[in-house]
Amino acid sequence: MYILIDHFIGYLKLQKNFSDRTVEAYQKDLFDGLDFFSSVLSTPVEQIEPSVIDGRLLRGFLANLQQRKLSRATVARKLASWRSFFRFLYNDRLIKANPMLRMANPKQEKRLPKFLHQEEAKQLVEAPDATPLGLRDRALLEFLYATGTRYPS
């Protein structure tokens, strides 16, 4: 399996032009899954064939990720790594069926944006002094407040 992963990593680097950090994350995610599959199958990692990884085993991996209390975004990234790997294997005709086709990503958390209360916003807008730069800053703050512009968190 390591040879297939190495081939996939080369594909990500050379053909897909992924960044080094992205490639490193994909490789780490794949190795994490291999370690899980190896323990469940009681098979050395080197002897695992892609054909033995089925939907049941992948659901077990998903359950393991959730038991480890990983964030939903991390779980989604790990599944995306495996989804890309199996798509690569399927497109290169190295496997006959893609077991990831029926795997859904966990729903992402929807977080509300942080905001200032009315009194806090008023204090912020009124904070600049009466100098030309202060008036400019106040105009910018009023513009940002009036348009509802948010700072990404």
Identify the notable features of this structure and list them briefly.
single chain; DNA polymerase, domain 1; about 150 residues
Describe this structure in words.
This protein is an all-alpha fold. It has two domains: 2-102, Orthogonal Bundle (DNA polymerase, domain 1), CATH 1.10.150.130; 111-153. Helix content is 61%, strand content 0%. The chain is built from six helices and no strands. It has helices at 2-14, 20-41, 55-67, 72-91, 118-126, 132-147. Helix 1 (2-14) runs antiparallel to helix 2 (20-41), helix 2 crosses helix 4 and helix 5 runs antiparallel to helix 6. It is elongated and about 75 Å long. 12% of the residues are buried. The mean pLDDT is 89.
The amount of beta strand, in percent, is under 5%
Q: Which percent bin holds the helix content?
A: 55-70%
Estimate the mean pLDDT confidence. Answer: 89
Q: Element order, helices and strands?
A: HHHHHH
Per the CATH scheme, the topology name of the largest domain is: DNA polymerase, domain 1
Could you say which structural class the secondary elements and strand pairing correspond to?
Answer: mainly alpha
* Biggest pleated-sheet summary: none
Distance between the amino and carboxyl termini? 39 Å
- Radius of gyration, in Å, reads 24 Å
Number of spatially distinct domains: 2
Gross morphology: elongated
Number of helices: 6
Q: Residue ranges: pLDDT <50 for 5 or more in a row?
A: none
The assigned CATH architecture of the largest domain is Orthogonal Bundle
This entry's quaternary arrangement is: single chain
